[in-house]
Specification:
CATH class of the largest domain: Alpha Beta
Structural class: alpha/beta
Number of helices: 12
Number of domains: 2
Distance between the termini: 38 Å
Order of helices and strands: EHEEHEHHEEHEHEEEHHEHEHEHEH
Strand content: 15-25%
Bound molecules: threonylcarbamoyladenylate, magnesium ion
CATH topology of the largest domain: DHBP synthase
CATH architecture of the largest domain: Alpha-Beta Complex
Strand order of the largest sheet: 1-8-2-3-7-4-6-5-9-10
Largest sheet: 10 strands, mixed
């Protein structure tokens, strides 16, 4: 396995590996992706194998130019209405943390989409990712570069620790800017649906193409990223609302084995004020001033850190449920043991 910083040479070499059917982990603005050539069924099969990902969970196909849509989707299955929405979204929100479900063409092997006739397409907002994709076949399928069900990687080290020698190359492009996966949006039906909340807030999409339906249990089956027990740290994680966490007490003997993850400093201070003991618990704050973007970008990173401290439990506070807060809470709740 090659572990290299992003450079003109390493990107060239990575693209070559992809074209030869190999696997390259690369940075994106959301989380690190485990890339394989989207047209190569054998390479795609290896992605599932390496991640231990169930074959019913489809991959996202990454492109680096809007024109590449023509190489991966079937425009004959797109009506005027859908086409308008697609271009409004693409022109305003791409490159960015938004994956759009569209009818795939026959060049994309069924294994990429778990047999679905649709594919999730995304144009990432990260220069290294864009270069790697452009230098390869132009379409790179990439799930998050972590073992299935675990915390997503926001740094190259996370990929090395989680997948290591199983991949051919890891490109280190520093910490991910957004820190949460893309929003997955289905525009193929009459009703617009968010299948996974993520780095593009619902409000930004609605401003362009109108109201989106709240996702339901049935949609969860379509987008297994919605399944429970995803994004889970190895350490038991308990998710609490603001009032619950501020008043949280626990067995004194657990003091040094317990970690608290607060949304902001105000919440942390309120908790400290309620505690007579327990002040030696491990305490982290997602964003001192309660900035939702900063909190999102630190979520997985902080959970990775806490997971490596070998504590026996983590209590985490839910974020305000607006904008990116929805995606933060989705990840916390899916990763939680309670
Ligand atoms: O930000 C991201 O999206 C990252 C980076 C690497 O780009 N990728 C990522 O991929 O999060 P992954 O495989 O961890 O999540 C893909 C999600 C899953 O929830 C999957 O079920 C959904 O997208 N998905 C993919 N294709 C789909 C389709 N055709 N229909 C419905 N859901 C789909
Ligand atoms: Mg994932």
């Amino acid at each position: 396995m090659k572990y290299l910083p992003v450079s003109a040479e390493s990107l060239n070499e990575g693209a070559q590996i992809l074209k030869n059917g190999g696997l390259v982990a690369f940075p994106t603005e959301t989380v690190y992706g485990l890339g394989a050539d989207a047209f190569n069924a054998q390479a795609l099969a290896r992605v599932f194998e390496v991640k231990k990902r169930p074959y019913f969970d489809p991959l996202i196909i990454h492109i680096a130019a809007i024109e590449t849509l023509e190489k991966v989707i079937d425009f004959s299955l797109i009506n005027e209405e859908m086409r308008k929405k697609l271009y409004l979204l693409a022109e305003n929100l791409w490159p960015g943390p938004l994956s759009i479900i569209l009818p795939k063409n026959e060049k994309i092997p069924g294994i990429a989409t778990s047999g679905l006739e649709t594919a999730a397409i995304r144009f990432p907002d990260n220069e290294a990712a864009q270069k790697l994709i452009s230098l390869s076949t132009g379409a790179v399928a990439a799930p998050s570069a972590n073992p299935f069900g675990g915390l997503s990687p926001t740094r190259a080290e996370h990929v090395k620790n989680g997948l290591g020698e199983k991949v051919d190359m890891i490109l280190d492009g520093g910490p991910s800017r957004v820190g949460l996966e893309s929003t997955v949006l289905d525009i193929t039906g009459d009703i617009l649906k968010i299948l996974r909340p993520g780095g593009t807030p619902k409000e930004a999409i609605e401003k362009l193409i109108g109201p989106i339906k709240a996702s339901s249990e049935q949609d969860a089956i379509l987008s297994p990223g919605q399944l429970e027990n995803h994004y889970a740290p190895r350490t038991p994680l308990y998710v609490l609302n603001s009032e619950e966490i501020i008043n949280k007490t626990f067995d004194k003997s657990d003091d040094k084995k317990t970690a608290f993850l607060f949304f902001d400093n105000n919440s942390k201070d309120s908790w400290l004020n309620t505690q007579k003991e327990h002040k030696t618990a491990i305490i982290k704050v997602l964003s001192e001033n309660g900035d939702i973007l900063q909190a999102a970008s630190r979520l997985f990173e902080t959970l990775h850190e806490l997971d490596n401290l070998n504590v026996s439990q983590i209590f985490a506070q839910l974020a305000p449920n607006t904008g990116l807060g929805e995606a933060i809470n989705d990840r916390l709740l899916k990763g939680a043991s309670n």
